[in-house]
Specification:
Helices cover 31% and strands 12% of the residues. It is built from 5 helices and 5 strands.
């Protein structure tokens, strides 16, 4: 009976269905896996799906609803002057070069993440990541 009441209460709060969680890069997998583990412990009747997303289709997956939550690494290295900020405006980004995504990235995703201009039309500086040396 207690289990049935808990399921009814969860359903009334909208805790039903099958959340689809994706992460970008294996180094970011730990946080969503822990979160989904907690969710499953609290709501064992709900199935959840966790998978690694590809950068090339991550934005589209969010837009089309095939992924509910997407996690990834932070956009600013820890030692960057903007790293301590809770949020950063596009205007502030115009003062710093922004590393660009690889060529496989969709134009829509790249515009969303690294715009060409700020809202006041200042040009954003672009930087390309340095090539990595081949692994032995």
């Amino acid at each position: 009976m207690a289990d049935a009441l808990r399921r009814a209460a969860d359903a009334s709060r909208g805790i039903t269905g099958e959340p689809h969680v994706a992460f970008l890069g294996e180094w970011t997998a730990l946080a969503p896996l822990k979160a989904v583990g907690l969710f499953r412990g609290r709501h064992p009747e709900c199935r959840s799906v966790v998978r690694e997303a590809r950068l090339s289709d991550s934005r589209a997956s969010l837009l089309d609803g095939s992924v509910d939550v997407l996690t990834g690494e932070g956009r600013v290295p820890a030692r960057h002057p903007l790293a301590g900020e809770e949020s950063v405006s596009l205007k502030a980004l115009a003062d710093h070069p922004v590393v660009q995504y690889p060529a496989v990235t969709s134009a829509a995703f790249e515009r969303d993440r690294t715009p060409d201009r700020t809202p006041r039309a200042a040009r954003c500086r672009r930087a390309r990541p340095e090539p990595r040396s081949p692994r032995c």
